[in-house]
Amino acid sequence: MGSFRLYCAEIDGVILLLGGHKDSQSKDIKTAIQLLKGVKNGKTRTKKYE
Questions:
Q1: pLDDT value for 22
Q2: Is 47 inside any structural domain?
Q3: How far is CA 5 from CA 9, 18, 23, 27, 30, in A?
Q4: Rounded to a whole number, what is the largest CA-CA distance in the chain?
Q5: How far apart, in whole angstroms, are the C-alpha atoms of residue 47 and residue 23?
Q6: Is residue 49 situated within a structural domain?
């Protein structure tokens, strides 16, 4: 079993969590950045959990 990575960010009360294995780290980081940019500019829909 390999290492698991967890990436997280918070912006305007939205928490983005993304995880993956070491072998997909580069792809996972790019995906996380794209999702965060989408949240920042309102192009990615989010759900509010309470």
A1: 83
A2: no
A3: 14, 8, 10, 12, 13
A4: 37
A5: 29
A6: no
| Domain range enclosing 18 | 4-40
The tokens describing 4, both together, are 């698991």
- pLDDT, tens digit (0-9, with 9 covering 90-100), for 2-50: 788 888 888 777 777 888 888 888 888 888 888 778 877 777 766 655 5
Cβ neighbours of residue 4 closer than 8 Å, sequence gap 6 or more: 19, 20, 21, 22
The answer to whether position 45 is within a domain reads no
> With the CA atoms of 2, 30, 36 and 1 taken in that order, what torsion angle do they form, in degrees rounded to the nearest 10?
-10
24, part of any domain: yes
